[in-house]
Design goal:
This protein is α/β, with parallel strands linked by helices. The protein has 12 helices and 12 strands. The chain has a domain of about 130 residues. The longest helix is centred in the middle third of the chain and has 20 residues. The protein starts with 6 loop residues before the first strand and ends in an 8-residue tail after the last helix. Pfam families: Bac_luciferase. One of its GO terms (molecular function) is alkanesulfonate monooxygenase activity. This is Probable F420-dependent oxidoreductase, Rv1855c family.
């Protein structure tokens, strides 16, 4: 059953990277427009690995800046690569940003998929099976550290990672910990891992969203978890405009034919209809995927003409 507290969020994935000032300007526009959250991708290369104009920024460094420079929107990664950061360090980074934001952070995490990106920055990229094994251990360590009670210690011995009696685990503001988002289109390991660890399951992009949510629900039931404990979300690339020329200009920015095929391209009413279809498929959260981060008028239009029809706005932080 769909939740009544539907959430509409913005996901930034700039085609050519961005500076922090550009990211901040977009995040503030998202906040002013009434969206509930601002998320960014976790990449060091763009869609085109040969793009020499791409400007990489570290995901969690910029989220730390946004934690201090915004006041209301929730912040997070969709999704971070588990290959990028050692699990104990990741737990500490996210907890630090959660403290800096007053408890507005969420951790989206996946196995990592962009092999060329890893090679370009000297980051190991194991095979698919090993990446899933490591991903599962990372989640066990991060959530285990966060859940360790005061005065307790946390230890973990896995095939790839180990923690030796950590008696000073990182302490996020949100308890028991910041929400964990896991998603993807895989029919087996992804939903099984999400059933164990996810506060939100993201059905990714394209394909049968309703079926992906059903597979996740069955994975929850298989381990005795109530599927309704977790949120369900979807990603929707968007190019919205009030004139054909404006729509066409924004649609041209969308990264690939696959993205355009699955995008909401059209007037505010047409974009709202696409969001409504995702809600009917079971999504209680939709991330509007934005590529042109300098087009702040696009955000303002979505805030004025789309957000009021769908989204609940989070209360301001004290």
């Amino acid at each position: 059953m769909a939740r009544t507290d539907f959430r509409l969020r913005v996901l930034m994935e700039p085609r050519h990277g961005a500076t922090y000032d550009e990211i901040l300007a977009l995040a503030l526009a998202v906040e002013d427009a009434g969206f509930e959250a601002f998320f960014r991708s976790d990449h060091l290369l763009g869609v085109d690995p040969d793009d020499r104009t791409y400007r990489p920024t570290d995901c969690w460094t910029t989220l730390g800046g946004l934690a201090r420079d915004t006041r209301r929107v929730r912040l997070g990664a969709l999704v971070g690569a588990a290959t990028f950061r050692a699990p104990g360090l990741l737990a500490t980074i996210v907890a630090s940003v959660d403290q800096m934001s007053g408890g507005r952070v969420e951790l989206g995490l996946g196995t990592g998929w962009y092999e060329r990106e890893h090679a370009a920055f000297g980051i190991p990229f194991p095979g698919t099976g090993e990446r899933f094994d490591r991903f599962e251990e990372v989640l066990a360590i991060v959530t285990g550290l966060w859940r360790t009670p005061e005065g307790g210690t946390f230890s973990f011995e896995g095939k790839h990672f180990s923690i030796d009696e950590n008696g000073a685990p990182p302490r996020p503001v949100q308890r028991p910990h910041p929400p964990v988002i896991i998603g993807g289109s895989g029919p087996k390991r992804t939903p099984a891992i999400a059933a164990r660890f996810a506060d939100e399951f993201n059905g990714a992009l394209g394909g049968d969203l309703r079926e992906r949510f059903a597979i996740f629900a069955r994975a929850c039931e298989a381990i005795g978890r109530d599927p309704e404990e977790a949120r369900r979300s979807a990603v929707l690339p968007v190019a919205c405009g009030t004139t054909p020329a404006e729509i066409e200009r924004r649609a041209a920015i969308i990264g690939s034919e696959f993205m355009r095929t699955n995008a909401a391209i059209g007037t505010p009413a047409e974009v709202s209809d696409r969001i409504g279809a995702l809600r009917e498929a079971g999504a209680d959260t939709v991330y509007l995927h934005i590529y042109d981060i300098s087009d702040l008028e696009h955000i303002a239009l979505l805030g004025a003409e789309v957000v009021p029809h769908h989204a609940a706005v989070a209360p301001a932080s004290p």
